[in-house]
């Protein structure tokens, strides 16, 4: 199964670090987009999810807002 995961983060977000550590510990590959350095990505998030906070994770087109490992695993298995 080809899985595409993108995690949207900022440099100072402790939940972003927790999420990246969780994915790494589970050997789940992901792409990271830091919205501080890519403001166009922040605009995309707000337009798509209506949320300004991070982390936000896109798993195969499904969105998980916040640090929610269970929802990410569920999205991976669907």
TrEMBL record:
GO biological process per UniProt: cell redox homeostasis
CDD domains according to UniProt: NrdH
GO terms of molecular function: electron transfer activity
The Glutaredoxin domain, residue ranges: 5-64
Domain of life: Bacteria
Gene3D superfamilies given in the database record: Glutaredoxin
Matches recorded under InterPro entries: Glutaredoxin (IPR002109), Grx-like_ET (IPR051548), Thioredoxin-like_sf (IPR036249)
Record-given protein name: Glutaredoxin family protein
Source organism (scientific name): Oceanobacillus halophilus
